[in-house]
Amino acid sequence: MNEPVRIGVIGAGGMGSSHAQGIKTLQRARVAAVSDSDEARGRKLAGDMGVPWFGDYQQMLREGEIDAVSIASPPFMHKEMALAASAAGKHIFCEKPMAVNVADCEAMIQAAQQAGVTLMVGQVLRFLMPFLKVRELVDGGAIGRPIGVEVTRISGGSGGVWSVPWRAHLEQSGGLLMEINAHEIDLLRCLGGDVASVYAEADNYVHPDADYPDLAFVLLRFRNGAIGSLYSSNACPLGETSGKVQGTEGAIRYNGWGKRGSIELRRMRDSEPTVFRLEELDAPPGVAYELDRFAEAVLTGTTPVVTGLDGLKVVEIARAAYTSAKEHRQITLPERD
Fold first, then answer.
1. Where would you tag: which of 5, 19, 102, 303 has the fewest CB atoms within 10 A of its CB?
2. What is the rounded CA–CA span in Å between residue 9 and residue 29?
3. Surface-to-core class of residue 192, CB atoms within 10 Å of its CB (0-12 exposed, 13-18 middle, 19+ buried)
4. What pLDDT does residue 162 have?
5. Which pTM value belongs to this model?
6. CATH code, domain with 219
7. Phi, psi angles (nearest 5°) of residue 274
8. What is the pLDDT of residue 161?
9. Are 189 and 318 in contact (CB under 8 A)?
10. What is the spatial distance between Cα 37 and Cα 26, in angstroms, rounded to a whole number?
11. Domain limits at 323?
């Protein structure tokens, strides 16, 4: 395939619009169709992109001149749409969380493999600062072997776009640990490796309309022996995005994200830390970059940078944390290749 990948965007809400705008900037891909059951919303995004609108994504799969889809619908719809796309022979970029349970993720992976189509999951934090720089430092051996990883993402309130009905239900949204913290769990995996076991304490304190916790502390044991933790809340009026990676030869601490904040690196032999200001670090636009990497995988037939298995493992860790918090026990995860 030498021509740009023709992508049909499923879902014209905030995330679908972000996908479309990102694709619009690329050389290796272009928006070729938009599908949304909300006619006004779907027609607007399709008009902005200059492409056809389909009220039914199944019709778009049958009649649209597309090679691939980006799935930007609510999480509980991901499996159904991915299976339909695979059956139609279309490559798949699926927004996080990949699905709301492990069985759905497994079905999506199997269908894509049987159809011979590319499946990539949208874990955009991999392509943003400070996470790009932290991973670069860790992967480059700046602090030796990671032995401890801590990630904090807390915020207060859940109004605005977060108040849509499906977001209040675990089986539709995946709850706090998937709908929001799919990013942080994936980051923990990138920094610490595959996870062997999970223990969590979590509860719902200020969101009685939601059927999942709004505060969670999750402890991870990685298969390589390292340990990690996630502090997650959408019930804290003091917001924070931060983390630390402790290695055998040094440590890294980050605060903030995007262009606001800093990264500190200090090796055992250093008298003072090296400080990187996020505003001084260059990074490509995250959503556009991840979709460009998806297009690259489709065009070259190579493994995408975030695979279906990566997406599944995030969901598996989150599900284990929910179970652990409910049953007050450690959950052992299966080994997966």
1. 303
2. 12
3. buried
4. 58
5. 0.96
6. 3.30.360.10
7. -90, 130
8. 45
9. no
10. 26
11. 126-284+315-332
